[in-house]
Amino acid sequence: MDELEILKKDWQKNQKFPKLSKKEIYRLLHKKSSSVVKWIFILSIIEFCFWTFISLLVKDSEVQKRLDGYDIDHVIMPLIISGYIILAYFFVAFYKNYKKISSMDSVKLLMKNILNTRKTVKHYVLFNLIFLYISIIIGIIIEVSNNVDLKLITAKFTETADYFILYGIVAILTLLMMVLLTGILLGFYYLVYGLLLKRLKKNYKVLQELEQ
Amino acid sequence: MKSNVEIEFVTQVEKHQNLIHKICRLYSNGDAEHKDLFQEITIQLWKAYPKFRGDSKFSTWMYRVGINTAISLYRKSKRKILSYSFDDVSYKIPQTQTYDDTQDQQLKSIYAALEQFNDIDKAVIFLYLEDKSYKDISEIIGITEVNARVKMNRIKKKLKTQLNP
After folding, report:
1. What is the pTM for the complete model shown?
2. What is the mean pLDDT of each run of 10 residues along chain A (212 residues)?
3. Dist. CA B25–CA B20, nearest whole Å
4. From the CA of B25, how many Å to the nearest CA of chain A?
5. What is the largest CA-CA distance in chain B?
6. What value of ipTM does the predicted structure carry?
7. Distances (CA, A) of A143 to A55, A69, A82, B145
8. Fold of B100-165
9. With an 8 Å Cβ cutoff, is B11 touching chain A?
10. Which of A97, A144, A191, B61 could form an SS bridge with A117, CB 3.0 to 4.6 Å?
11. Residue in A closest to B22 by C-alpha
12. What is the CATH number that goes with domain B1-91?
């Protein structure tokens, strides 16, 4: 007899499980869920808040106040406005994806929908990172060409013909800062989401391979 | 205060609870994890219950939510599970019992072999053991009927090689 048929017979007849009373089941309904989706939702909201907070922090900083004195609104305003529009877009997209998640879908569709919410937030983080880097570069260019102290230093270096050394140092320091920041962020995401979604990704891959 | 909906739901779950237990048996290691998963499935069923309005049988609906919870939603808790294995409790046969010993040994090794399968395979096996049609299996998993059959054939083959190396 086929192994699975032996198993089937046993499976349907000899299952001994503890029987839960209605009272016990009722109690379970009011326990807190610890589902992956709930965690992704909480973490995503934290991420949205974090990045919005960071951009507000930059806005109120000393640097911003000094930048305000440079008469460069035509550069800053479009950046700020597009930042908010993009934040709104990501938030709506994330919420829509989240609402789509239903435990009544097929296994494959549910996985796809969960991974999609995650993808949206990932894109948001990536966008912010790029936005941050562009801001840093623009900030440096503006500073170098407008800051009086820096102009003096630049002039001094130009006199001694070490102009390129100054720019070289600034460029290397900026690059190092970006690499470090990216490293920390990627490490953080790898730890948090890598662990949370490892199983889901593996299972989704199994289904995708089957369909090929 | 228990509402009518709650009473109705709890009655249905109590009636079909073995189905949840069976899913837990396949997807968890040990008693504590079994209880944990049982709880999560019940919570997810309750959360989805407003959308269930009798267009399918309660048990059919339970398969979907239960399997989805076990595969995609349930997050294994980090706490160390110290309890005994579920298998040890239900399937331990006392030494004095001699009848049908070969059958029991064979079953034990089949159950042990099931552990080697991935989450998706386990879902297909589970639905097969529950006598579901390939059409049902393909709909619940989200693959084509042909692929569900292919999957099942591969599982049978793998099981055979594992049990008779």
Report:
1. 0.81
2. 83 83 90 88 86 74 67 75 86 91 93 92 84 79 74 70 74 88 85 85 90 76
3. 9
4. 9
5. 58
6. 0.81
7. 19, 11, 22, 64
8. Arc Repressor Mutant, subunit A (1.10.10)
9. yes
10. A97
11. A15
12. 1.10.1740.10
